[in-house]
Structure formats: structure tokens, C-alpha cells
Amino acid sequence: MKRKLVSAAVSMVLTAAMLAGCTSTTKEAAATEPAQTETGDNTETTEEEGDSYRVAYIARAQSDSFAAWLANEIQTAADKYDDITVDVFDGQADDEKENAAIENAITNGYDAIIVQPNNGEAQRPYVEKIVEAGIIAITTNARIDGIEGASSVDADPYEQAAVNARAAVEEVPENAKVVVLNGPSGNFHAEERRKAWQAEFFDKRSDVEIVGEQIANWNKDEAVQYMEDWVTSNDKIDAIISMNDNMAAGALEVVTGKEEYKDILSYGVDGTAEACLLIEAGTMTATCLQSAIDLAELNMETVHKLLTGEETQIDTDIDAVFITKDNAAEYVDMYKSRGLIEQ
Amino acid sequence: MKQKFDKSNQVMQKYSIFIILFAMIIICSFLNKNFLSVNNVTNIMKQLAVGTILAYGEMILIISGMLDLSSGAVLALAGVFSVNFYKATGSLVLALLLAVIIAVVCNMVNALMVTNFNTPPFIATLAMQMVARGIALFYTQGQNINQLDNYIVFGQGNIGPVPISIIFMIIITIIIWYIMRHTRFGRSLYAIGGNEEAAVASGINVRKNKYIVFAINGVLVGIAGVLFMSRVNAGLPNGAVGYEMEGLTAAIVGGTSFSGGVGTTLGTLAGAFIIGCLNNIMNLIGVNSYIQQIVKGCIIAIAVIWDIRSKSKKSAKVILVEEKEECK
After folding, report:
1. Where are the domains of chain A?
2. Chain segment B154-202, per-residue pLDDT in tens
3. Total CB pairs under 8 A between chain A and B
């Protein structure tokens, strides 16, 4: 009996300690972040009394850093509209969970549902159900094409990579050896970006040799490992062509500080805080901003127009802003103002 | 002549996993001229460090009849807290210590659930996996932590020509080998994993030992968390997903038996090297990602089957010899 009591007491203390840890970090995060979201099936509401439109935002995966950033920015952007409240749900990078979240949102009678698909084709029938239920449907990052009655807000993944590729045509030296880091197989943005590099760069520069190409799943740690092996197996690498910034930064981690790679070129997409810092420092060459801030604001503007009846269907894209050493400081400042880069 | 043949056969059986590794190294060295270069061997070891350290944790848990499915998530949790703590204090030692403390606390909760509440380790550590990953994501709001400054010394620094991560791996290998081979505690773990009831009957404090095993696993996961984050120069709350499987795979390939009571430190090290060499050579020769997965799965299966078969031949031979002696 005594032993059981001791066990129970110890478990309570440990649980309390973990919860205390959570509480303090929440406060800390609240001080630096403009908005809060929760993972799991729970929702968090920015609701205030008197709001008239309820919007459900179904995020692809709150564990994905871009998706989490976008979810935070959606809530920040929603704060600017007095008549809109947003509840954020997490698809947990799982089609089944994301589809269940869409069904729940339909049942809960939201006025609009914004879906950031985990896999466009898997979510397509569920977005169609939103439309059938007479609820406003928006797909974002990436859009699901061809659903009658649904709207979409996205960045053009082809163009995001193409702006880099067009610059690379001029910048990459003759007979260069390059490595390519791809996003997850089947991912719309990953595939469109790779297509853009093929059409805008590799097809125009037949002298360039790809000495390594792998799927690093958007992950920095996987890119580090691939780059370490490529550096070993090749005498020289002139450029890193990456479908996102995370992987480009990982590959650069391997060669930074090595004299023989001081002129290496590297291209990414996303315009993350880290990439902007690297470009400003001259370590990375260029990226294309996929701004979660712009995407969130455009989503809110779109949903507001649809909810108020100003428009009935909208398909729109944010701009593909090309970031190089010339304008990186501007974006570093933007991240500083958001607390994502230390002052 | 027959005796000589039997002896060499015994050596083959005892060291089967090392023979597989040796054969693999020979084949790889023919496939790519850079494979045995100092740079590449260093690369392989750097790439292996985190996985091998996690594998030792899994190994001692499996030997004791348990396992840990939370090590990847706890690694991320300990890592992101450690990174932020370093940014706040500038102390590498304290940042390392904090990572270890967090990972040990998580493992103490695992131990509590397993030993005091009789929760199956699979379920207890699965629950911890979710909790730890959730806290890491909640704490960082899913964002990477950048600008780590000198924190990267753990994963990217060198002492002389030797990378610090490799030094960590070597020291930990020696400590774990010593614990498992030369201490009463280590031997008691084999007894617990082999037959827990018999271990209790023989006077081994099973509950206490399970707590210690989880604590050791916590220390290893904490260190792995620091090495991982410093290697990638970022605090990645969504990093190291699935690393517990890498650790488990290395331990199992290295001859650790899932039924408990069997396994060696050097076998696990060999298992980690087999997987590391496979990954490395396939990248060096430019094998397609999809094919890599197929090849890796097949070679791991073949290696384990060969190892199990050679060991079962050995035990069958021992039983036969014992039966013969009994007949006499």
C-alpha cells in the first residue's frame, strides 16, 4: 500500500514538473509569438464576443515548420478582421486525420473552411464535401485544382524555382558539377519546383553535370548527410540546387569554412529566416520568398471577400519574390520585427 | 584436421556479424575508390555517432526485456531546450547537462510507467514519444531555432584531427562495453531479460535495475540530442523523427535478441556500421533513393538471417555435445 502511494506521489510530481515546464514555455512563447496554435485534435480560438464569421483552418502538419508558421500567421491576419474568428486544426501530416478534421469542421457548421492539403488528391473529395454542404472552401499551399465552387490561394511553386533557375543559367560556371536536393516524392510543390529547374536550367545548360541527386524530404539533417557523401565522392561541386532552404542550409553546413568551396553557389526556395541570414552573409546565393505572412494575409482577404459576398470564387497567388544579397537585409529586418531573428 | 575445421567454424559463428561487416567493407572499397579514404571513414563515423549512441540505449533496454520508442522525440525535446538554454546562458556544459537532465526525466517517467504501473514498455514509451514531440513543437511553435554560434562545436568541432562527435561515440562505446561486460549490474540485465522471474528469485533488484537502465538510456539520448542539433546547426523540434527505429535496427542487426537477454556492445557497434556503410556507399555510387530503401531492407534481412542461422547452428552443436556427454 505504502509503495503504491509512493509511486502515485512520484508520478504526480513528475507530471506536475512536466506541466510546469509546459506552462512556463507557453508564457515565454506567448511573449514572443503573435499568435498561438495547438497541435492535436484540439483547437484554439481567437474568438471574441460579437464576431460573426467562423472560419476553420486545417493545417497540413503543425510539426512542419512552414505549416506551423503559416498557421500562426493566419491567426495574426485574422486578428485584423473584427468579423472573423479562426480555429486552427492539425492534420498531423496524415491524410486520414486531415480528412477527419475537414468532416468535423463541416459538421460543426463553420462558415468557411481553409484547407492546407497534406496530399491534394486525398483531400479532394473532402473539399468537394465542403462545397456540397454550402460552406465556403479555400485550398492553400498547395491549391487543389479543378474543384467547382472552391477557391484557392497559393504561391506558384514552378515560378518560385524558376526565378532561381533563370539566375543560375547566368551564374553557374561552364561545365559545372552540381548536386540536387529534392523534396518528398509526390509532393506537388517538390515536383513543380524540380520541373522548373529542369525546364529553366538543365535543359538550357547541357554542359552542367548532376553529380548527386537525392530526396532529402525538406530536412536539414538528411541534406547534411547527403552532402558529406557527395563532397567525398567528387573532386568539386560548383552549385547546390535545392528545392527548399532547409536542405540548402544543411548542404552548406558541410562546406562552410572550407577554402575549396568558398565560391560554391546555392539556391533554395521559401526565404526562411536562416536562408535570409545566409544570403546576407554571402554564404548562400539566392532563394525565393514563400512568405507565410503574405499567404496568410491573402487567405484572410480572400475568405473575407467570399464571406461578405463581395466575390463568389477567387483563385490567386502571392508573388514570387527573389531574394539575393542585394535585398536580403530587407527580409532579415522583416524577420527581426516578427521575432524570428534575434535583434 | 576435423578439429581445425570445427574451430574455424566456431570462430565464423561467434563473429558472424563482424565477418559480414568486413565483407561489406571489402565490397564497398571495390565499388568506390573513396570509400576507405580517411575523409570518408570520418564521414561515416560522424554520420553514425547519433544513431550508435541511441542504439546502445536501445540495446541495454532490449537486453533487459524492454525497448524505447520515444528516443527520437525525447532527443528533439532535449535538443531544442538545450539549444535555447545555450543561447540564453552561453554555457556549453550547462546546455549539455540540461539536455541530459531532460532526457533522464523523460526516461524516469518511462521507468515509472513500466515498473510501477506495469505498462508494457511499447505503450509507455509510445506515449512518451507523443508527449515529448508535442512539448518540443509547442515550445518552439514548430519553428527551427537558428543562430547557434559555438553550440555547433559538439557536432562539428574537432579535437586535433578527430571530430568531437566521434570522441563521444568512442567514449560511450567503452563505457557501455565495460558496464555490460565487467559489472554485476550489466550481467544482471542479461538475467532480467532472459528470465525476469528467475532474476527476482535469485535476488536481483529488478525494479531498481530497470530504473537505472532507463536513466542510462536518458543520458545517452540527451547527449545524442546535443550532437544532433549541433551537427545541423539548428534546434529542430521536428528533427530525428524515426531515429528510435535506426537505433533499434542497429541493435537488432548487431545480434541483440528482441526476446531479451542477448546482445553485445560490439555487436551493436557492428550493426550500426553495417547500416552506416550501406547508406554511405549507396550515396557515393549515386543509387536512387527508392532503390536505396529496397537494398537496405534486403541486406539487413540477409545479415540478420545469416547471423541467426549461424548462432542457431552453434547452439544446436552445443546441445548435441552436451547430450553426448550426458549419454557417456
Report:
1. 53-153+292-317, 158-286
2. 999 999 999 999 999 999 999 999 999 999 999 999 999 999 999 999 9
3. 130
Distances (CA, A) of B22 to B17, B25, B201, B310: 9, 5, 42, 16
Q: Work out whether strand B162-163 and strand A321-323 pair parallel, antiparallel, or are unpaired.
A: unpaired
A158-286: CATH architecture? 3-Layer(aba) Sandwich (3.40)
Portion 12-41 of B in contact with A at CB < 8 A? 32, 34, 37, 39-40
Q: Is the ipTM of this complex over 0.85?
A: no
In angstroms, the Cα distances linking B107 to A159, A202, B50, B220, B222 are: 47, 50, 18, 11, 10
The CATH number fitting domain A53-153+292-317, selected from 3.40.30.10, 3.40.50.300, 3.30.70.20, 3.40.50.2300: 3.40.50.2300
The alpha carbon of residue B286 is apart from the nearest alpha carbon of chain A, in Å, by 6
What SS3 state is found at B31? helix
Q: Judge whether A209 is closer than 8 Å to chain B, CB to CB.
A: no
> What is the residue-averaged pLDDT of chain A?
85
State the amino acid at position B162 in one-letter form: V
- What confidence tens digit (pLDDT) does each residue in A76-108 have? 999 999 999 999 999 888 888 899 999 999 999
Across the interface, whether the CB atoms of B112 and A68 are under 8 A apart is answered no
